[in-house]
Amino acid sequence: ARAVAKALPSVFGSGAMLVHGVFTGSIPAVQIAAEHSQQDSSPPHCRMLVLESGISSIDQIPGIAGVIGGMQNDPIMQAVKLRMVRCDIALVRGAEHNMLLNF
Fold it and tell me: C or N: which end of the chain has fewer Cβ atoms within 10 Å?
C-alpha cells in the first residue's frame, strides 16, 4: 500500500485525495487512508475513504482460512487501522455479482 501511495504522480501535488477500496481492495485502501489522513503525513492528504463491500476482518474472505491457518488473531488488523483513519469514511454496499470473489 505504501508503494502505491509513493508512486502517485507528482502532478497530484498537495491536493486532496479520495481513496476507494472494493471488497479485498479495502485492505490496502484503509492502510493508505490511515497513513495519508494524519496531520503530519506527506502530500497528497486523504480527505475521504470509500469502502465498497469492504471487509472488516480476514475471515470474510472465502477460503482464506485454509491458506493462512487460524483466525484467532486477525493478521491484517483492519479494525485497528480503521480507528487510525482521520478523514471522512463512506460505506457503500455493492452488488454481489460485481465482486471479485463470488462464491
Answer: C
Cell of 15: 491536493
> Which phi and psi angles does 45 have, rounded to 5°?
-90, 130
- Rounded Cα distance between 79 and 102, Å, is 23
Predicted TM-score (pTM) of the model is 0.78
Mean pLDDT of 74-99: 82
Using CA atoms, how far residue 42 sits from 14, 30, 64, 96, 97, in Å, is 8, 16, 34, 36, 37
Q: The C-alpha cell of 21 is what? A: 477500496
Cell of 45: 492528504
Residue 21 region by backbone torsions, left for phi larger than 0, else alpha for psi between -120 and 50, else beta: beta
The pLDDT tens digits of the residues spanning 27-72 come to 999 999 999 999 998 888 899 999 998 988 777 888 776 776 666 6
Cell 472465502 locates to: 62
